[in-house]
Predict the structure of Peroxisomal hydratase-dehydrogenase-epimerase.
Amino acid sequence: GGEQLRWDGQTVVVTGAGGGLGRAYSLFFGSRGANVVVNDLGGSFKGEGGSQTAAQKVVDEIVSAGGKAVANYDSVEYGERIIQTAIDNYGRIDVLINNAGILRDISFKNMKDEDWDLIMKVHVIGAYKCARAAWPHFRKQKYGRLISTASAAGLFGSFGQCNYSAAKLSQVGFTEALAKEGVKYNILCNTIAPIAASRMTATVMPEEVLNNLKPEWIVPLVAVLTHKSNTSETGGIFELGGGHMAKYRWERSRGALLKADDTFTPGALLQKWSDIEDWTNPQHPTGPNDFMTLLEDAQKLPPNPRAQELDFKGKVAVV
Ligand code: NAI
């Protein structure tokens, strides 16, 4: 047997930890020596109501198994109170798992401001508030591990979930930026897009599928990314579920150099359309600096002959 990854002496805050994935993370960290702050407002999956039972039950489970945990019942909108619970009880915070979430599924046609605003409040503002409150502690101690929770809905857009899709992809940009700002202070930030059985997915997936999507199967990646032995993995985007794990990256097509044609007409662009969609020899940019390389490379592309005024179907029409 190898050495166990452990979090002795460290404090882990898990938001939305009263059920589903957050509960699975909390029980794991509790079993591996961490002080766990189990946050959950205890409302419905649509963001209605509240109760202290959900978080307290998870705390009881951890404590009765010999672990250390305290509950916090604030909404993630008040992230500063959640982080304060960690400081008050354990004097520190080392890991933040931004996990709390709700759904307000409805077609865009029928969406009300309330459906949009509530999703933004929990997923976008909530994740911001918790990270914002943890950040000064992370910087001061030159240590922090942060996990953001995105979703395939965010990566691809999902029918009937434009509010949720927008909020979930926001976690990618947010976390990429935090990864860049945090790296100097040993603050490592990664994004996961999980798939797991929970009350959120219970209504949309059949039972035999859900049986193969255990929330516990998401835990190992979260563990590896938030352990002190991770010293380099930051800004990653991971998709996982059902025991499968994979990493995402951006891909940029070979592209076209419009500049070689000094007309800059729409017709000049259409003439180069196939290059814009050419996925042979793609690039995998990791930051804005790559754009400079792109421009240098673009100078080496063959010049665009004078625009021939083509439309999308290759007809001579557009200038
Ligand atoms: P869940 O509904 O079991 O867990 C979410 C928890 O967040 C609930 O316990 C809820 O009470 C809590 N919560 C909601 N609003 C809160 C607030 N304002 N403050 C504090 N806590 C709040 O669902 P699940 O599946 O465990 O979801 C966890 C995260 O994973 C969510 O961010 C969800 O969007 C995301 N996710 C889940 C997927 C899945 O397949 N289960 C797919 C993609 C993303």
Summary: The radius of gyration is 23 Å. The mean pLDDT is 92.
